[in-house]
Amino acid sequence: MTDYTHQQIVARGARADAEAAADAIDNMPGLEGATYSILEEDEDKGIWRIDAFPTTEDEDAALLELLGGYPLKVEREALADADWLAMALSGLPPVRAGRFFVYGMHDRGRLPASTVNLRIEAGAAFGTGHHGTTVGCLQAYDRLIKAKKFNKVLDVGAGTGLLAIAAARTGAKLAVGTDIDKPSVRISKENAKVNMANARFVHASGLSNKLVAQNAPYDLVFANILARPLISLAQDIKRALVPGGTVILSGLLRTQERMVKAAYLSRGFKVVNRIHRDAWATLVLQRP
Hints:
Elements: E1 7-14, H1 15-27, E2 36-42, E3 47-52, H2 57-68, E4 73-78, H3 84-89, E5 95-97, E6 100-103, E7 116-119, H4 132-144, E8 152-156, H5 162-169, E9 174-179, H6 182-194, E10 199-203, H7 210-215, E11 218-224, H8 227-232, H9 234-240, E12 241-253, H10 257-265, E13 270-277, E14 280-286
Parallel strand pairs: 6-7, 8-9, 8-11, 9-10, 11-12
Antiparallel strand pairs: 1-3, 1-4, 2-3, 5-6, 12-14, 13-14
């Protein structure tokens, strides 16, 4: 058996076709954990772009087959560096979201003085702040903490740990993050140390981990994952929140917003805010 040579797959086309393909990736068995992003590449020409980073031959083949079923121009190229995602993200510019300024090592010399500066290195994890879902979560959180402090925060699907670290750096006394991917947990811990943030991270699926359970209920829950897991975790997230607590949901396309929102409204949540960025939606809801 040979090692898989990591690829970057790029698919370009009209917005409707790109969004439909992204929705299909989210809902295809075997691609639940696929790393990809969708963004508007050329506003004047109406061109949208999907960047996918498969990690196995099976995932590579499945993505190529799926994307080939849409009227998109699909290209791929090998990424020789073993630290493939870090290489793909290394040249990205810093991101400003409300009071937060998210940057990588390559931008450490250009930090604003008036922002909460968060250095995030991706490694093999996802969530640098460039993706529309992560930016949406930061913007939503920034708006919330202008009026209220959240002492206990849980980040479900932490990725690089950015959201839990942001909470810890802005007054949360307890910030806990979980991820189903062990390398992501390691990277989150490293990022917390670099940012001198008192945030703890554990390898867990769902909210049943001992550390997560023993610190419940939380004032705020971030859940930046995928639409179907957001729906399936609705009741668990409700139980994990204090009455009147807040959840920030993202990782969902605008086309998936209605079904995700329905799962929470049926449990008594009310919508506080929503943010649309590119094809993505972020929902802020309050527990009854």
